[in-house]
């Protein structure tokens, strides 16, 4: 039986989404057709569409009644997670032929690696790349020759962008196809130690690079539980992946079999008697299931924006209060780095998604009356995991018990009773904090502000030895309108060093910290941002700030009268708006919405 608290929150979301959801479904219904989609095209249009196909595919596309599948891929060689996709197209075509269908590469979408651009100018394009990917997905599918689609993507902005774009074609059955994580490398604790030692100047660049290279060492997703792997969990728990497919390593027989089966399953749900379009899978209840998964696993704070944007693309309205209220009732069942020491391979080995979903389902913390790419039978298929049996792909029940309760625990005996992602409110604005990796003694900090307008300024102050004290770093003019809302990972090592030295430290910013949010209390995504005349722009050096993650408050400890008398700070952002292609994104900076509304340029 579904938990009454989950039902109450979901009903609230359904109520406030009633008009927007109805409008979305009406748009989808208008786009539906009977028979192969391409048959409505003119002869010249269709001829262009299959001009380069082989003779058999030309005949099938010209005269056949079988469906044609579009492939939208984020393949490139800059993302280790996406390198395997370079070998997916021909096996997908072969699998489509096996079930009497055809498949075509519909288009590629851009995919940047945040790990490469982190701390540099290219990172200012990262958040906006999500919306560009959504538009690119629409361009790929706009040829209107497809009766279903496969979306190939893994990492940070790519999966949310693909999902947003695919939802504009919600009349089609669509399956997301993962590529899997790289095998384990340098243990996460050793990687974190190397970064901290480098921040303290105790090891050099050569030693740091050796540690990083031993950690990120092959094709596949980075193995920590950041946004990329949170994406994979999200697609599975929302029913857009095949069961158990998220965390199977690349270049293995099981991975290949799952990709082939994804094509075959797409063929099944494209058939008239089993037709399951994406619009019927992504609903208010499946969105709530996705949030439940994020909270139960300690997922990425980036999804405080991405899940909001995905939901809005489907006509569903959620906000940070919904996330915070759900966090209050969802147990934290996982400890995966940076919320623990294990990587996603370990999570998969000790029980993985099948165990997690069966546990949540058993205590009524997932909506089971949902459709998935497996059909209308609810989430029961997702309590199983895939295996190769001889030459066949089969699913068996996930382990009855976790094989390591330091990594994965039952819903009834969690690490904490709540999910650890909370809304902070106060006279500085609204923000999100992730406390699943923050020790209890660090969750309340009262200290004077030190204000910076860039993470480089704080790094420089740390190197000069000016931060050996209690303080709250206020890093502003980092929001989407200001400079594209870059992630501020470079702040984690110095703040971690200072916390380890016994100082009370915290971060308050209108920027992001992403899936790698760790042991430092960080009030992120402050909204309104400084460039929107948010109160964060009124803070001055020395002002006392209280961050209380337990109470859910973020307070500037000065009088309202004094605050009203202050002038908003300004910043020269010209250097963040030019070079590395940033000048091309001026229209996006000018039109982007608030972080709590998904930080998107689209208005649904």
TrEMBL record:
Keywords: 4Fe-4S, Carbohydrate metabolism, Gluconate utilization, Iron, Iron-sulfur, Lyase, Metal-binding. [4Fe-4S] cluster binds at residues 155, 222. It is an enzyme of class 4 (lyase). InterPro entries: 6-phosphgluc_deHydtase, Dihydro-acid_dehy_C, DiOHA_6PGluconate_deHydtase_CS, ILV_EDD_C, ILV_EDD_N, IlvD/EDD_N. This is Phosphogluconate dehydratase. Its cofactor is [4Fe-4S] cluster. Belongs to the IlvD/Edd family. It holds the Pfam family ILVD_EDD_N. Residues 69-376 form the Dihydroxy-acid/6-phosphogluconate dehydratase N-terminal domain. Residues 407-599 form the Dihydroxy-acid/6-phosphogluconate dehydratase C-terminal domain. The keyword Nuclease does not apply. The keyword Iron applies. It catalyses: 6-phospho-D-gluconate = 2-dehydro-3-deoxy-6-phospho-D-gluconate + H2O. Its EC number is 4.2.1.12. It comes from Cellvibrio zantedeschiae. Pathway: Carbohydrate metabolism; Entner-Doudoroff pathway. PROSITE patterns: ILVD_EDD_1, ILVD_EDD_2. Catalyzes the dehydration of 6-phospho-D-gluconate to 2-dehydro-3-deoxy-6-phospho-D-gluconate. Binds 1 [4Fe-4S] cluster.
């Amino acid at each position: 039986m579904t938990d009454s608290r989950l039902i109450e929150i979901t009903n609230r979301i359904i109520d406030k989404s009633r008009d927007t959801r109805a409008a979305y479904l009406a748009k989808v219904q208008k786009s539906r057709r009977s028979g192969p989609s391409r048959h409505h095209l003119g002869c010249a249009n269709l001829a262009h569409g299959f001009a380069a196909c082989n003779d058999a595919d030309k005949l099938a596309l010209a005269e056949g009644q079988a469906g044609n599948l579009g492939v939208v891929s984020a393949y490139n060689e800059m993302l280790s997670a996406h390198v395997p996709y370079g070998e997916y197209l021909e096996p997908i075509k072969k699998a489509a032929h096996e079930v009497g269908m055809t498949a075509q590469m519909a288009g590629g979408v851009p995919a940047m690696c945040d790990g490469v651009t982190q701390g540099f100018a290219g990172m200012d394009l990262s958040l906006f790349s999500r919306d560009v990917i959504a538009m690119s997905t629409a361009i790929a599918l706009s040829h209107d020759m497809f009766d279903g689609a496969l979306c190939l993507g893994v990492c940070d902005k790519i999966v949310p962008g693909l999902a947003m774009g695919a939802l504009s074609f919600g009349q089609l059955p669509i399956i997301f196809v993962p590529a899997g994580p790289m095998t384990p490398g340098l243990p996460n604790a050793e990687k974190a130690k190397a970064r901290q030692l480098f921040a303290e100047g105790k090891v050099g660049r050569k030693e740091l690079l050796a540690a990083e290279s031993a950690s990120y060492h092959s094709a596949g997703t980075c193995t920590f539980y950041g946004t990329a792997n949170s994406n994979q969990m999200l697609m599975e728990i929302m029913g857009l992946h095949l069961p158990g497919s998220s965390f199977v390593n690349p270049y293995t027989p099981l991975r290949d079999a799952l990709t082939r089966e994804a094509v075959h399953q797409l063929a099944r749900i494209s058939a008239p008697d089993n037709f399951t379009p994406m619009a019927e899978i992504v609903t208010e209840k499946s969105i709530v299931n996705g949030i439940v998964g994020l909270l139960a696993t300690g997922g990425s704070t980036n999804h405080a924006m991405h899940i909001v944007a995905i939901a809005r693309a489907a006509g569903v309205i959620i906000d940070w209060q919904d996330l915070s209220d759900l966090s209050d009732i969802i147990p934290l069942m996982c400890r995966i780095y940076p919320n623990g020491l294990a990587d996603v391979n370990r999570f998969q080995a000790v029980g993985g998604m099948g165990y997690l979903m069966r546990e949540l389902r058993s205590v009524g913390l997932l909506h089971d009356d949902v459709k998935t790419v497996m059909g209308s039978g609810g989430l029961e298929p997702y309590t199983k995991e895939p295996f190769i049996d001889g030459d066949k792909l089969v699913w068996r029940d996930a382990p009855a018990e976790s094989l390591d309760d330091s990594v994965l625990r039952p819903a009834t005996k969690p690490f904490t009773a709540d999910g650890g992602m909370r809304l902070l409110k106060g006279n500085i604005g609204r923000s999100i904090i992730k406390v699943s990796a923050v020790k209890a003694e660090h969750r309340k900090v009262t200290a004077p502000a030190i204000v910076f307008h860039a993470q480089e300024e704080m790094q420089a102050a740390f190197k000069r030895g000016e931060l050996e004290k209690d303080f709250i770093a206020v890093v502003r003019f980092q929001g989407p309108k200001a400079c594209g809302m870059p992630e501020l990972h470079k702040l984690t090592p110095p703040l971690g060093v200072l916390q380890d030295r016994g100082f009370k430290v915290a971060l308050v910013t209108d920027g992001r910290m992403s899936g790698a949010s760790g042991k430092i209390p960080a009030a992120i995504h402050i909204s309104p941002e400084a460039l929107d005349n948010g109160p964060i722009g009124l803070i001055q050096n020395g002002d006392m700030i209280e961050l209380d993650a337990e109470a859910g408050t973020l307070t500037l400890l000065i009088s309202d009268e004094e605050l009203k008398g202050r002038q908003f700070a300004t910043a020269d952002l010209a250097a963040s708006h030019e070079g590395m292609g940033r000048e091309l994104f001026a229209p996006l900076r000018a039109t982007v919405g608030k972080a709590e509304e998904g930080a998107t340029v689209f208005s649904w």
